Amino acid sequence: MINGVRSVETPHGPARVTLHPVERPRGVLLLGHGAGGGFAAPDLRAATAAAGDAGLHVGLVEQPYRVAGRRAPAPAPQLDAAWIAVVAALRGELADLPIVAGGRSSGARVACRTATATDAVGVLCLAFPVHPPGRPDKDRLTELALPTVPVLVVAGERDPFGRPPPAPGRRVITVPGDHALRTAGPRIATTVAAWLPTVLGDGTP
């Protein structure tokens, strides 16, 4: 992987990938952003740093709608298709390294829905939005149940979007804060650093 920013063509316009390589990588963590935010989000910064320290390349994937300057997110099928195209384009540069998919909020949903299609070995969900605020009847737990690989969810204890329950193959960590996870960076970094080796098969739970 080449350090820096590159454009990747997708069926819905160019995506942008910011690459953070490491020497002697053990794997790759690809992260997607939230619906209206970027990669300055504290939880994404913490996860990026933890993955790098754990020996993984990190790729921050910016969806085509944001690259085009649009604020409203694209429909889910477009987000998923763009993500799959980015992973396919990067695979040739990854030397068959295992890929962990992940993201924040909307990005976490995309990672879950596409985990099988991208052959991810694990999924990292930061602030997965279980339901719209005040609408617990509109839950998205079916998306969270789609991956057949290990899933780590980090959720704020006061998140109005809800907190998912643990399940077989799904670990849920509750941290102080709300959906923004602004103050949970150190806990996120520690949790992600401990979880990644277990997903890559060279660590213990």
SSE blueprint and pairings:
Blueprint: E1 4-8, E2 15-20, E3 27-32, H1 42-53, E4 56-62, H2 64-67, H3 76-91, E5 99-104, H4 106-113, E6 122-126, H5 141-144, E7 151-156, E8 170-175, H6 185-200
Parallel strand pairs: 3-4, 3-5, 5-6, 6-7, 7-8
Antiparallel strand pairs: 1-2, 2-4
Helix pairs in contact: 1-6
Describe this structure in words.
The protein has 205 residues and is an alpha/beta fold. The protein has one domain: Rossmann fold (3-Layer(aba) Sandwich), CATH 3.40.50. The chain contains six helices and eight strands; from the N terminus they run βββαβααβαβαββα. It has helices at residues 42-53, 64-67, 76-91, 106-113, 141-144, 185-200; strands at residues 4-8, 15-20, 27-32, 56-62, 99-104, 122-126, 151-156, 170-175. An eight-stranded mixed beta sheet has the order 1-2-4-3-5-6-7-8, sandwiched between helices. Strand 3 (27-32), helix 1 and strand 4 form a beta-alpha-beta unit. Helix 1 packs across helix 6 (185-200). The longest helix has 16 residues, at 76-91. The radius of gyration is 15 Å and the shape is globular. It starts with a strand and ends in a 5-residue tail after the last helix. The model has no long low-confidence stretch (mean pLDDT 94).
